[in-house]
Fold:
Amino acid sequence: MTRVRSGFSSAACWLSAVLVGGLVHVAAAGAGEPVVAQVGADGVQHATITLDSYSYTPDYLVVQAGKAVELKLTSVTFITPHNFLLTDPAAGFTVEQEVRAGKTLTVRFTPTQTGVFIYYCDKKLLFIASHREKGMEGRLDVRQ
Ligand SMILES: [Cu+2]
Structure:
């Protein structure tokens, strides 16, 4: 799992890695502008992530550490099932959610550590590249 922990230097390192080695990959994955989850009246950080073949929108989500996050996962596919994997128990989350075609559901977790974490879909058919390899991944940027 690609992951970089907190700290300015590691963030800079990560950025350098992206700039030097990841331009093609990032372009392929869309690398949209960062989207900041909105804190609702309930104090929960809310965001909607749309799942399509083969992308998450947004693919760059910013949240705050120490505050609950609720993600609404909406699949806009007709047939292809996807999933949403975001797992780092040490950082406060173990999300492994199936999202069937056309379905919408929510997951909730509270990130406890800052850092950049990758969410992705590991679905694949035999002998064919996984959805993640086709660009279905995104970054959760947990900030202070
Ligand atoms: Cu998928």
Observations:
- The helical segments are 8-21, 23-29.
- The radius of gyration is 15 Å.
- The pocket of copper (II) ion is lined by residues 54, 82, 121, 123, 131, 136 (CB under 6 Å).
- Residues 6-29 have pLDDT under 50 and may be disordered.
